Amino acid sequence: MLSFLTSTQPWSTFLDDTDAHQQLTETILLPYVNTCRWFAGKARQQTGIHISAMLALPGTGQQPFYLLILDAHYADGEPEQYLLPLALVADLTDVPDKGVLTEARFSDMPGTLVDAIYVAGFRDALFKHIAANDSVTQPGNSASGSSASGTLAFQRGRGLIDAEAGATLTSRVLPVDSSNSALVFGYALPSQPSGELFFLKLYRKLFEQTNPEVEMVAFLTETGGFGAIPAYAGRFTWQRTNAAGPQPDITLGMMQRMVPNDKDSWAMTGDYLNDFLYAVPNRLFAVKEDVFEKVALLGQRTAEMHLALYAKTDDPAFQSEPFTDEYRRFLTGRFTDLLDRRYDLLVNNYSRLDAQAQRLAWVFMEAKEMIDDFVADFQTRWLGSCRIRVHGDYHLGQVLAVGDHTGHRDYVIIDFEGEPESTITDRKIKHSPLKDVAGMIRSYHYAVSAKLFNSVETEGIDPEKLQIVSDRWYKLIRDTYLDAYLGTFGSPHPMFYDNGEINYLLLIYLLEKAVYELGYEISYRPTWVKIPLKGIVDVIREIEKLQPGGHHRQMASAPLHLV
Ligand SMILES: Nc1ncnc2c1ncn2[C@@H]1O[C@H](COP(=O)(O)OP(=O)(O)O)[C@@H](O)[C@H]1O
Ligand SMILES: O=P(O)(O)O[C@H]1O[C@H](CO)[C@@H](O[C@H]2O[C@H](CO)[C@@H](O)[C@H](O)[C@H]2O)[C@H](O)[C@H]1O
């Protein structure tokens, strides 16, 4: 932190302090957001960031807090909006380095400008307003044009009961590095996490609409009667108005009940893969029976989530729909665009890949024409299945493993915000539920690949042999998951026309997901690039079988699974 901000005004009038805003915009904000995990624009060519609005949140007897709405601009593509809450503090004891923006001197106080999530008073204020179900009217129309008009509106959900609403709770920032920020509230001290009651997600990337997660959680609980998600406890939104009248609300945060969980299913799958891993060097193929039971239970919960999303409703946002021409155009257009971007990314990063990844990348590049044809076929192929709202970014990390006092294990599904790369409109588009199924299948493939290829136990083993055992494990688990998923519907279900379509749609969504992941890994975890590449090559092999002269030309009508 090299910067310094000076102002002749007090912090309490920061909303109108144009000079301080200018200093922030010119020298402080851009370098700062580029250090933040939640800022998704790091790989884009940035042309600037500015404060598009600012909301005030009074602290309880202390300095006010300000919620900055930042507009990030890029050389290409649409700008993005982010939320950054600011506090001025004199004491940095609880603030990690990543929360510090700059030292600052205001006329009433020298201090440090920090991300307000690290300040207990800010977290308390959010919780108290949610519990009180009240709102903070914004002054609007400041000289700088930055201060927001409208209302910062807090809404209390059914998951927050009276006794807890009135209690004095402690809070902390959950140390997870993800796309948003997580605040936790409870009776417990940080050393006793079991007393923690609420999980509040402060959204970082903002959308000029209700956040899809809020809609999904509300529908699943109120209409779908789905129990395997954390209960909704509240939210806060910026209700905007301007001269033309009310504008769509922007969701800034959502609170759910805290789910006491040992770990997510990614970590749990890693644990049961350990037993498998230790057996491999001894030429044993060992999978414990309870692993299959756990995988099957997740298949069942996934199906129940989809049945809840299929529930009868008058709300057009959740009514099921057929595979319309509009959707086909949308999916093929998006897929073609994604493929173009991924081929470019791969070409530009090819020399950074290891030999195994380069071999897989070649197969992918050489299959371009066949993949293009496969995707184009989606435009015209007759499809009798239907589409519903789906989770959209379903993987093992989105499923928490929970247990009750009797030792009974189960799952709770989280993070219904959709795919991080997609626009808000795209996140609300209905798909076949098989899109989520493909997401989870990819995740099992990831789990086994990440474990077997990155462990000391398997270091001396020929990679080709390792690939064969890892494929065996993955296919057994994939089939267990799919059987349990499809078996939960019991009888033919209108969401799936027939087995041929199930296989075809699974291939489409598996390919789309693996191609999406390729970009994610090149940007964030280059050593993992071969995992999605292997997933892409697996689908290519299946598509080849569908080609005239392919080994199994009848694959589309030779079902993997019976519905
Ligand atoms: N209701 C909850 N109870 C307990 N932990 C939770 C809850 N919701 C999320 N978490 C934890 O917080 C992490 C981040 O949550 P997630 O919804 O995935 O956020 P993001 O949108 O930032 O990816 C999860 O991986 C999980 O460990
Ligand atoms: O941050 P989110 O949870 O919203 O999701 C993003 O990050 C995920 C990685 O944490 C990424 O998932 C990919 O890696 C997982 C293993 O770490 C694997 O289980 C998933 O199958 C794989 O897609 C996800 O794609 C991305 O959107």
Automatic annotation (TrEMBL):
The keyword Nucleotide-binding applies. It comes from Fibrella aestuarina BUZ 2. Belongs to the aminoglycoside phosphotransferase family. It catalyses: D-maltose + ATP = alpha-maltose 1-phosphate + ADP + H(+). Residues 32-117 form the Maltokinase N-terminal cap domain. It comes from the Bacteria. GO terms for molecular function: ATP binding; isomerase activity; transferase activity. This is Maltokinase. The keyword Ribosomal protein does not apply. Its EC number is 2.7.1.175.
